[in-house]
C-alpha cells in the first residue's frame, strides 16, 4: 500500500506520536490468515518519497506488514494465503482500512495526497459497514490515488479496468505500479489512463537496453500527451539518478533516500508540496464510439476482409504485445478466419477480446471470449480496435442492406479514436461477466 503525505511544513507532532506508539500486533493464538483478517493484525512501515530536483521529502510509501515471527510477516505471504482461502478482497479492504485509520488519526491536512495500492478484487467488492465510513472519510478529506500493479493489470485486464472505472466514479485517481516489469502492460497504458506511473525498480538495476527503450517510448508518449507524473523506484545509488530523470521521473524512492521505518523520517525541510496533473478523464465524449470520424466509404467485402487481415497480422507480428478487441458478428474474424485463429493472435497480445454471438466458445489462454445475445445491436457491425505504444488502428464496417458482400466502413489510425473504441468494446465484453 502506498501513500504520499504532502505538506509544506513538517508533519505535526501527533503524526510522530501515533507512529511511535504503533507496534506490530501480536496474535493471541497460533496465526492463520483468517485470524489476521478477523483480528486486524496489520501495521505499516514508511519509506520516504522525494523530489529528484532537490531530494526534499514529498511523501512516503507505506508498506503493509503482518504479525512478526509468523509465516505472514511479509505482504506477499499474506496475500498469497488470502488468495488461497478466498479472503483476498477482505484482506485488501482491511489493508486500506488500516491505512485510512492511521491517516485520519494523525490529523494530516485536508487534501493530502494518498496513494493506495489496491487489488481489483477489493476495489470491486462491497465494503463492510465497519470500514465504509472510515474509507469514505479518508476519500472526502484527502486526494486518494489507487495503484494497480503492472502484473495485476496484465493478468486480468478486464477486471483491473473495471476496478479503475469504479474508483474514478468515486473521485479517486489511478496509478500503475511497477510499470515496465515486462512489456505486456505497455500497450495497456492509455487504456488504464493512469494519472501516475511508478516505474519498476528493475529499470534502474541494469544498464539501459532495448527493454528500457521500449518502456521509455511508452512512458514518454503517454506523459507528453497527458502530463502524468512519473515516479522512479528502487534508487540505491547516486549514479542511478541520471537514468531515473532521463526516464521522465520527477519523484523517486529507494534506500538512497531512506529505508522503511515504523516512524516517517522527515528531513529538516519538512515535506514539500507537489501537485498532480489535471485529472485524466476517460470517455467524456457522448458520441457513439462505433461511429468513427472521417468519411464513410463503400467497398467490396474482399477489401474490408483484407484490411482486417492486415491489422490482425500487424498485431501478431508486433515487437511489443498489442491490445485488441474484435467484434465477430458471424462467429469468424473480420478477415474471415475462424475464431480458433485467436490462439495465434493471443501469443503476442497482452489483451485480446473477442465479442461474438451466443455460441460455445472454446477457452483460449489470454483471450477474453465474450458471447453476447444474437440480437445485440453491436453485431450490426464488424469492428477491430488495436493499439501498441507505437501504432493504433480502428476499423468499423457495416454490411449494406440488399447488396451482396458490400460494406460501408470507416478506418482511423488516430490513437485517441482507437483507444476510445477499444475501451468501449472492453466495456461491452464485460457485460458477459
TrEMBL record:
Source superkingdom: Bacteria
A Pfam family hit: EAL
CDD domains per record: EAL (cd01948)
Protein name: EAL domain-containing protein
Record InterPro entries: Cyclic-di-GMP_PDE-like, EAL_dom, EAL_sf
SMART domains found in the cross-reference section: EAL
The species this protein was found in: Actinoplanes campanulatus
Residue stretches making up the EAL domain: 26-274
Leader sequence residues: none
